[in-house]
Predict the 3D structure of the following.
Amino acid sequence: MTAAPADFARARSEFLSIDAPRVEDGAAIWRIARDSQVLDLNSSYSYLLWCRDFAATSAVARGEDGAPIAFVTGYVRPDRPQTLVVWQVAVDRAHRGKGLAAALLDSLTARVAADQGLSSVETTITPDNTASDRLFTSYAQRHDVGLEKEVLFDGELFPEETHLPEVLYRIGPFAT
C-alpha cells in the first residue's frame, strides 16, 4: 500500500521543516535509530560524524520544538556519483504511520537531484523488513521509475549466524 496524498498532507502538518542534519542532531538521530528496534544501531559517534560529513545527502524532519522526529541518511557512491545510497530511514514512534518517511525520502532525493544530479537511488533491505520494502516500492511508483531487486550480500557473509541476506533495491533511472 502506498502513502496517499492525504497522508503526505497530514505528515507535513506534523512537523515544521525538513532540512539537512546538523552535528547537534546526532544524539537525537541515534536515539530514534535505537528506539526503532529494527535498524542496525551504529555508535553514537558515527551519527555525529554522519551529521557532519554526509549532511548534504541526509535529511531530518523537525517537530515544533525544532528537534529531529525522523531522519534519512545517505551518501553518494564514489564510483557512481549520480547514485544516492540510502543508508537508514527512521521515524520516531509517535510520528509513524503518517507518510513522514516518504516525505523525507522525496525531499532528500529532490535536494540531491537539484544539487548534483541523480540518476538512481539504491538501498539494501533484509527480506523481513516489510515497512522498508513498502517505502521504496511506493517511492518508485510515485516517481514512475523502475525498481530492481537482487541479493547484494548473502547472509553467510555476515559474522552473525542469524543475519538475513541484504537485498539491493535499485530505483531508477530518473530523467536527467
Remarks:
- Helices lie at 5-13, 26-36, 44-53, 100-116, 130-142.
- The chain is about 35% helix and 25% strand.
